[in-house]
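Q: Start with the shorter request: fold the first protein.
A: Done. Sequence, then structure:
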Amino acid sequence: MTLCLLLLTTVGLAATVFAPRALLRAGWPEREPVTALWVWQCLVGTVLLSCLSALLLGAAALLETVRARLFAPAPPAVVDAYDLTSVPPWTALLTLLLACGAAWTGAMLARELVNDRRRRRVRRAHLRERAPDLPAGLAVPAGPLLVLEDEYPDAWLLAGATPQLVITTGALRRLTGRQLDAVLTHELGHARAHHDWLLHLSGALAAGFPRVPLFAHFADQTHRLVELAADDTASRRCGHLTTALALIELNQHRGVLSCDSPRRLLHARVERLLDPPPRLGATQRAATATFAALTPLIPLLITLAPGLAA
């Protein structure tokens, strides 16, 4: 069991510290944001599975109740293969730290979901206050598309069980038909890919463990990559130029064309749409996605190796 714990700790540290550095230095995530999002999720899954596996093994070694439940269907030879009786002195401390980390992770996720529900309730209440100003037939914000009378050009997705697209009349006046289609396709891309859940997960982990490199980079990269992925969805349907022009029209008053703008992501998105980077080949994308999907299996194989060998 000592070897298993050491290997799980090594895998978790490698995925937490070294893998994010290599991924941040790579140039292909800019070209393949969907694949990059998948790789980041697999890295996070690897760390979480490593911690969970180490927690279960440590708890089984220290507590007879946990051991009996965890190995109830296993034959005696499997239990003997894990050598749970020889517990190193640092196992108790490691198990306690992992248990606290698991509880804290659950608390952060719960807080993120509660805060998101509160924010959505406030936003929907705000929309209901503005509903009397809507044209006839749009008085109740219950459909998939809601138009607000507002000179300020804006469009966003109100996430929830039934996602709702919100767009202002100021945006409608600025955008052409094709540009409007690009904006709506962009927001629908967020809804169909459930980017809101990914943002909640990355935000909760970064808030709970701000000093963990993987979680901090995961939150930053998720905010960037989901926008690039939605841009690609819109550009495939409406064209790169149309999507770039729609983005400029909606954000020109925010200084999107200025290199010194604090909204550097908007500037980078426009440049990327106007000068699309070369995409990876289908074989390269498949190989990268497959390799990333196999990474979370490493802690599972380490954990199950003694039992399989028995």
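Q: Next, the second protein, separately.
A: Sequence, then structure:
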Amino acid sequence: MAAALLANVLYSTGFVLEKRALTSMPSVSVRSPARLLKQVISSPLWIGGSLALAAGFGAQLAVYRTLPIAAAQGIFVSGLVLLLLLSAKLLGEQTSGRERYAVGAILAALLMVVLSLREGSDTVSRSAPVPLVLAVCLPSLAAGVLLYGSAERRARHRHRLPTTGVEYGVAVGLLYGVSSLAIKGVSSYLTTEGLGSALLDLLGSPYPYLLLFTGVFGLVMSQAALQRCRASLIVPVCTTVTALFTAVLGTLAFGEPLPEEPLRLALRIAGTALAVSVLLAMPKHDPRPDPPAQPPTPTKELTS
């Protein structure tokens, strides 16, 4: 539990620091990844945010060794409250009433998932069949990249309303969901005995390569999306997609059984359904900003 709460603080701080650094940079693009990386690594503020995210990754490894996947995701998403506070305080971002209600509903949905857990009766799985992991992860990676490309093409249309970032958040969330499953897989190889053989076994699994792909593509895609959209919206969407993906597909892939009691099962299914419905109902565009007021035109005085 302590590691999960620490991961929340580190992830929220990291995203906000990266967003603040990106706002002062020239426009970045996924079409020029080398230029994007050159820009971001030259910013001490961005590097600080990245180190916070990397530390959150380490805390996440510890969580997956001690908590079921669904429970871990429920705790991770509770960090959205901290993220909203930090984005309002440090970035000056204001969310609309509809967006605040949506985030509140997401938190309620994931609280339902947490309430569906029972200590001592939920199994923490250590492994998953490799073909099943690939069958879950590869189509999800393709869907995330395709959705991001589609959002980029629509955003380039001059007369479109400014996007809130929902599509970007879903796309990046799919990649981070795969990354989360890969972290869960890596955690199963962490052992204090037979370190050499464990490392060889890990390299023979798909998890390091899934982490490498999602790390590179997720970094490039998330930075461009963060610069274009509000962190207070894109990060909650991304986090929710990641949590749902990991809790539902990860539970199935790693064989962590669903609750047998009807009430707990209903809570888990209803929480998942509520979170998905909120995502579908969230606004896709920000209102167009009002044009600046024009100064009154001076009138010529009539002369007799």
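Q: Describe the second briefly.
A: The radius of gyration is 22 Å. The mean pLDDT is 76.
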